[in-house]
Amino acid sequence: MSDFLKANYHAHTYRCLHAVGTEREYIEAAIEMGEETFGFSDHIPCPFHDGYVSNIRMTMQQAPEYVQTLRKLAQEYKDDIRILIGFEAEYIPAFYNEQMQMVRDLGVDYLIMGQHFWTSENIGPYSGSPTKDEERIRLYVDSVIEGMQTGSYTYLAHPDLINYQGMDSVYEFEMERLCRAMLAMDIPLEINLLGQSEKRHYPSDRFFEIASRVGNRVILGQDAHAPEHIKNRAVYEECMDLVQRHSLNLIHELKI
Ligand SMILES: [Zn+2]
Ligand SMILES: [Zn+2]
Question: Which of 18, 58, 214, 221 could be disulfide-bonded to 62 (CB atoms 3.0-4.6 Å)?
Fold first, then answer.
């Protein structure tokens, strides 16, 4: 296995209620594909204080079991692959301190930021829903920059999740602002393989055109929600075409 991801830091588990398969199946798929590092980054739990129960993420109470299960598997497979344990997290100020305390207590290896919401999911809006509202893209960019300034997140997952369909000039201005801030903080931007395979609005050429011009580093992320997602070579090649098309500065691994 030569031409494929060397490291993937974006994968989920069944605990988020919209991913399938066992952790072992994910790990064995990654080994089969020749990946040397595989990071689980399931959706971070949120400490809701109003009784709300999410149907897209584990609970705070489940997190210790998630980490312990993966620690055991990391040990079991250590001669074949390096397993890392992380979370994909929104930066939401109301949850941030409690989440960071949990991350420290559990000894999690890394966090990636996936800004699906900038307020709680029970308030919304979802970043990926189509909008012509300038305020939304501005708030998305503001919240990503503010979150990244904490230094807690290693990369930005699907930076082009915001689905702004208004004026091109507004999109250009806001996304260039995002890219420049990420460059200044040396934060890589993810090209999301799941979005590509499902023909979502990301990864988008209009975004990576801007990232190319700004000079950001980019990294591929499988965003696996099923073991098959790890073995999709065609989607890897499509994303590598995007890298070529925009002469992007691709990195192959992170220092964790
Ligand atoms: Zn998910
Ligand atoms: Zn994800």
Answer: 58
Q: Is 147 inside a domain boundary?
A: yes
| Domain encompassing residue 182 | 7-250
CATH of the domain at 139: 3.20.20.140
Long-range interactions of 120-125: CB distance < 8 A, separation 24+:
120/46, 120/48, 120/52, 120/92, 120/94, 120/95, 121/46, 121/54, 121/56, 122/48, 122/50, 122/52, 122/54
Distance 169 CA to ligand 1 centre (A): 30
Overall number of domains in the chain: 1
Separation of 172 CA from ligand 2 center, angstroms?
25
Asked if residue 2 belongs to a domain, the reply is no
92 CA → ligand 2 middle, Å: 16
